[in-house]
Amino acid sequence: MPVSPTGSWGMSDMRFDVTITIALKEGMLDPEARAIQNALAHLGVPTLSLSTARRFSIGLEAADRDRAEATAREICERLLANPVIHRYEIEVA
Amino acid sequence: MPVSPTGSWGMSDMRFDVTITIALKEGMLDPEARAIQNALAHLGVPTLSLSTARRFSIGLEAADRDRAEATAREICERLLANPVIHRYEIEVA
């Protein structure tokens, strides 16, 4: 089966399951995390540290793994992450 | 060094890094995920599927790995997760 050289949609595209995790950069205040730690302390469950993040599981069609990762990066930079305050990690399964 | 048999805080406790992921149960509506998919489609980035979750990274002191996992489960059930709509996963590092 011919592989599309342009990366356009076609029968050669495969499904990739991508996991994007978006967290606050080191040093950014995370008031939600502090509120959860306080609530846990009041429940008698002390914690040494606590941080929050969002996780997005996305199914993508792409010609290969590199393009799937590039699309995930584009999704982070154009929509999900604010580069001023967020860092993100991409895993392609 | 004596190990505390009661599980109370002591010098025998070790630090465990626990990751809790909380997602909607299968079949629950995820309007945020649909909004993100629509926004991506408008940006010219079609997706096959998209789901959202919250991730919490928590540092805990516990006598052993099993107790760290039990504490994480307690954190989910008493504070972070709503058992009617959420499922959760716990990883202990």
3D structure, described in words:
Two copies of one chain form a homodimer. Chain A has a three-stranded antiparallel sheet. Chain A contains two helices and three strands. Chain A has helices spanning 31-42, 65-80, and strands at residues 14-24, 49-62, 86-92. Chain A is α+β, with helices and mostly antiparallel strands. Chain A has a single domain (3-92), classed as Mth169, Chain: A. The first copy, chain A, is elongated and about 55 Å long. Strand 2 (49-62) of chain A pairs antiparallel with strand 2 of chain B.
Summarize, please:
Two copies of one chain form a homodimer. By secondary structure, chain A is α+β, with helices and mostly antiparallel strands.
CATH class of chain A: Alpha Beta
Q: Main sheet of chain A, how many strands, which sense, barrel?
A: 3 strands, antiparallel
Distance between the termini of chain A: 23 Å
Quaternary structure state of the chains depicted:
homodimer
- Largest interface: which pair? A-B, 31 and 31 residues
Radius of gyration of chain A: 18 Å
